[in-house]
Amino acid sequence: MQLSNRSSRKEFSNDEIIKAFRSNDSRVVQQCYASTQPILKKLIFNNSGNEEDLKSTQQYCFMTFFKYCQRNDFILTSKFNTFIYSIAYRHWMKTLRRRKKESDLDVMLENIPQEGDNELETSEIDRLVRDIFQRLSSDCQRLIGMKFEEEKSHSEIAEVLKITVGSSRLKLARCKNRLAKALLKDPLYNDILMSYPFLKKLL
């Protein structure tokens, strides 16, 4: 790909771009960053994303490209923008699928029964969820409880546990993933799957 600097109209070849990334040439890298932002913004904003998603996706793309450039045998055969866009597209589609899966699990977790709720205790699926929930580590139970029972924000959870907000999100995602996997492996799951098809969304 050819990138153009508005002031000098300097154009960079693919070899020059790779060399710039290998040598940490900030001037060229920043120009590449500016050049790819419009196409990535259109991709992200047209597919349920926001400014924060754009920033994180573009950073991911450039870090990935940087790693490619560290390989001596790496040859960029397509235009630079096309290559970055392909990385961004795969990454963003994977992110959207993960968010969809977590959203479906959030709905199920919100219905975990509480002690003394006789109506919920009569449900097979609720007994299954409650039983498997008890098999999680105490840390996961506490984290999920704070998020879905006490309805604390990640900032509040981070303050209580003395961790960062990012760590709170990561730990919760891991705990939810463990719960989802346990649900799908439980022997009772196959018996109730036809009655509760929403569980298929967790596969």
List the keywords:
single chain; 203 residues; mainly alpha; Arc Repressor Mutant, subunit A; 10 helices; 2 strands; 2% strand; disordered N terminus
Characterization of this structure:
The protein folds into 2 domains: 96 residues; 93 residues, Winged helix-like DNA-binding domain superfamily/Winged helix DNA-binding domain (Arc Repressor Mutant, subunit A), CATH 1.10.10.10. It is elongated, with a radius of gyration of 23 Å. The N terminus and C terminus are likely disordered. It has a two-stranded antiparallel sheet. By secondary structure, the chain is mostly helical. It is 68% helix and 2% strand.
Short summary:
The chain has 10 helices and 2 strands. It has 203 residues and is mainly α.
Sequence of secondary-structure elements: EEHHHHHHHHHH
- Summarize the main sheet: 2 strands, antiparallel
Secondary structure class reads mainly alpha
Kindly estimate the percentage of residues that lie in beta strands according to DSSP.
under 5%
Q: How do the strands line up in the largest sheet?
A: 1-2
Number of domain modules: 2
Number of strands: 2
Q: Overall mean pLDDT score?
A: 76
Number of helices: 10
The span between the termini is 40 Å
Shape: elongated
Which percent range fits the helix content?
55-70%
Low-confidence stretches: 1-9, 112-124, 190-203
Compute the CA-based radius of gyration.
23 Å
